[in-house]
Amino acid sequence: MGYLITLAGFAALASIFAPEVVAQSCSGVTGRFQPRMGSGYRYSVLATGLRQPRHIVVDSAGNLLVAEGGTQGVRRLVLQDQGNIVCVQSNTQIVSGSTNHGIALSADGKTLFTSNLASVTAYSYDAATGQVGQGRQIVTGMSFQGTHPTRAIATSKWSPDTILVARGSASNIDTTTTQQSAARSVIKAFSISKGMQTAHNYASGGELIAWGLRNVVGMTEDPVYGGFWSVENQMDDLRLNGRDIHNDNPAERLSYHGVLNDTANRYKGLNYGYPSCVPAWDPQNVGISGLLVGSLFKPDGVPNVAADACANNYMTGRLHFHAHTAPLDIKFNRNSTAAYIAFHGSWNRNPADGYRVMRVDFANGQPVHAVTSKTAQIPVMENGNIGGCPNNCFRPVGLDFDQRGRLFVSSDTSGEIYVIYGA
């Protein structure tokens, strides 16, 4: 397998995006696409030919670990700087099978976690050698039911014995998730050390962090302020009073869950409304008086709630995004001045939207924009021709930073890993 790295340089233009003007490459492979980059950013293609790369993580030695989809396992890419670009020195499969989306490392970097549709598995891991120990299931009981098989996972530096696991709904409108006992459309936290002794059962074990979240596919912890965040894919084919409003509603959602080790965390265990209530992206299209961006409302075909329940009984997101853009991961830069979000792109919208990496600016642990903002997203990396999506474009999935501030981005459809410089 070969690898190519393409370096994009940018002129100082007044427009949001700057065109590619310089190309450099590692020997071997040509990237399939030439993304448009936001002002101040450049990119390279680190690797091609991967099998549906999903979430990714940089280890303590600066190697990139990649969870490949379809139970393909985990690959370890040892990286090497070549001038002002980075290349792959070696590519080795270190875990076979047993993963389809999620990957994380413990706070000390010595334990590797992967997830599949049924369980979370832990392995001892040596970043220097790539040596992986025998896998041990620490969370079980998540067997696949319906349309959302991903199991996003995240670890915590502020609460290092904790692993968080998200499980999505079984269908577009999963009415059973109005009960916590369904253990779907939830985020739960589990003790790693206890799971090493006896595996946790997802439904009956763990601590509830949040529920009423249709399908959380990306989670992260703020490295400076310790806040825990999730990005959520909301409902498809939305109708209200028999009218089709799905093209611009509901909003995708960024939600805040507080600091995990804070005993007074008032965000822990809150319900975000799904399936009964969904957040608005285009309130005018919804047509309910007084509705704002992010306001919750009850669409057709969902469980009945009291007339004022959507407004008063559920937690709202902290920011909201274009309908059906499918945010799949979120990561902060090292000083927590910005969070970067991978939008995998829509299938339930015409024209298509998403297929990009965007930035949200933060200050003092919170986004600088208001909950109702529609302009909080700043372009970082987009497809030059979104008309070629979803099959003939890059589709961002996983994100992670290395210690030098380089942002790695996986694209599952094209089997590529990109590097963004200047993040």
UniProtKB/TrEMBL annotation:
| Family matches, as SUPFAM superfamilies | Soluble quinoprotein glucose dehydrogenase
Q: Where is the Pyrroloquinoline quinone-dependent pyranose dehydrogenase beta-propeller domain?
A: 36-421
Q: Name one Pfam family in it.
A: TrAA12
Q: Which keywords belong to this entry? A: Signal
> Does Signal count among this protein's keywords?
yes
Q: Does the keyword ATP-binding apply?
A: no
* Leader peptide range in chain numbering: 1-23
Which superkingdom, per the lineage? Eukaryota
Name of the featured protein: Soluble quino protein glucose dehydrogenase
